[in-house]
Amino acid sequence: MLRRRCDNNCLLAPYFPTQELHKFVGVHKVFGASNVIKMIQMVEERKREDAVKAMVYEATARLRDPVYGSAGSIYQLQKMIQELKAQLESMKTQVSELRQQKELLLSIHNNNVHSHNDPLFTDNDPIFDGYFDQLMDSDPFDFPVQVGWGCSNTNNMSMPSC
């Protein structure tokens, strides 16, 4: 795999610890060890860690997609953003249409209730004339109890006969 090991004095040691050898293998495969060392040396010391992270990211992307590398991932994400924006606009349109339908249905319902054209609204029906007023005026807990159910009871010990 690798010809030589990196000791503690190696420039790469702080950025590629032995427990993360797979990261260096990918970077080495894509860029080559000497190029990685040159790139690290070209960057200011305080920015080197970020530079190594970028190299690892690009190497991983290149191994996954040798033609486009990270640009392929960026393109796919941009395409996904455009598709999601289109879906969002479609959903906004649907919500707007549903709100309009709701308002229309509410206005129809309110017109029917206020004009008493509702076929289920029976306040003006002569059959029920005054019935609802009686219900509203009566006490729901005060109702007469009839005993005997209108049947004659000839024998006190037996059930009433009808």
TrEMBL record:
Lineage top rank: taxon: Eukaryota
PROSITE patterns for this protein: LOB
This protein's UniProt keywords: Coiled coil
InterPro entries: LOB
All residue ranges annotated as the LOB domain in the record: 1-95
Keyword hit for Zinc-finger: no
Coiled coil region boundaries: 74-108
Keyword Cytoplasm assigned: no
One Pfam family cited in the UniProt record for this chain: LOB
Family that this chain belongs to: Belongs to the LOB domain-containing protein family.
Stated name of the protein: LOB domain-containing protein 11
